Amino acid sequence: MRHRHGKSFREKESNSGDRAGQSCAGQLKQQRDKLKQYQKKITLQMEKERQLAKQLLKDGKKEKALLLLKKKRYQDQLLDKTENQISNLERMVLSIEEVEKIMDETHDAIEYQKQIDEMLAGSLTQEDEEAVLAELEAITQGDADLELPEVPEEELPEVPEQEPVREKEKVKKNPEREMLAL
């Protein structure tokens, strides 16, 4: 059934489903990008704090430098967690995209099957049906007319376990021939 804008209701449903899937994958991608931005920000901040800790050590403020290095270590652990989250998000995006691809392929296959069903359901005339049945009969008759060769009833000869020595190999192993050839 066609909607007044030219799309069927099924097409509208599948498009809204695509948007939901795209928004889910899109949201995951946005989250991944935010995590990457956070990661860059923390990395820059950690480098600044490291430089500041060096300066504090030069100024004789060991306690403050130690505190900054502890903070840097904590942020480094946060970066590791962030990296794991980014990896998980990327795997989830790939999984969602794979599922969407499978769903699209399945939808296409269902539509194709429906087209075939509709074509077979009523579009063949009685004459076409008879022609199809005649062709089927001809194919099955063709298989029945196929003659196969007779299978021998006697037993096959036994195959020796060792390979027979070829004449060329006998010639090579004969030392008298080698001496004559010299």
Automatic annotation (TrEMBL):
It is found in: Endosome membrane. Residues 163-182 have a biased composition (Basic and acidic residues). InterPro entries: Snf7_fam. Residues 1-32, 142-182 are annotated as: Disordered. Residues 144-161 have a biased composition (Acidic residues). Signal peptide: none annotated. It comes from the Eukaryota. It holds the Pfam family Snf7. Its main location: membrane. Keywords: Endosome, Membrane, Protein transport, Transport. Belongs to the SNF7 family. This is Charged multivesicular body protein 6. It comes from Labeo rohita. The lineage of its organism: Eukaryota, Metazoa, Chordata, Craniata, Vertebrata.
